[in-house]
Each structure stands twice: as structure tokens, then as C-alpha cells.
Amino acid sequence: MAQTRAKSYRLSPQEYLQGEADSRVRHEFVDGVAYAMAAGSQDHSTLAGQANAALLSQVAPPCRVFVSDMHLKAALNDADVY
Hints:
With about 80 residues, this protein is α+β, with helices and mostly antiparallel strands. Helices cover about 30% and strands about 15% of the residues. It contains two helices and four strands. The strands form two sheets. Strands 1-2 form a two-stranded antiparallel ribbon. A two-stranded antiparallel ribbon has the order 3-4. A hairpin with a 2-residue loop joins strand 3 and strand 4. The mean pLDDT is about 85.
């Protein structure tokens, strides 16, 4: 019996960002696929705060440090990653 594969739909970066604006769950976006991210924890929040404090004294304009809830676009092997 032949197996069939479901076609996977790849999102555009614009579709991903629009979906994130309406979503209660945060996602990571890699090469057209959105992956749900785990909820934060107290340990994660503490570590993120410490990293933020350490970075603040190490960057100069125009660089900036963000705590969270920012979408950062990066290119990874010619794929859009947020």
C-alpha cells in the first residue's frame, strides 16, 4: 500500500508575524514553520534578568538590549528565523 504524505504549508514571515499578534502562545519561526515555545519559569525569568543586567553595561548605541517579547529577525543558512 502506498503511503501519502500530507503537504506541509510553509508560512511567510508576514503570516507568522500576523499570527503572533493574535496568538496567546509564543512561537519560534524557522524556515517557514512556527514552533510553539514552552511557558516561562521562575528560573528562566531569573536567568534572563541577570543576562539583561550584564548586557546593559556592555552595549553601546545603536545596539540595544531587550528583556523579552521582541521578535528578532536573523538569517540562518538562508532561512528566515524569528
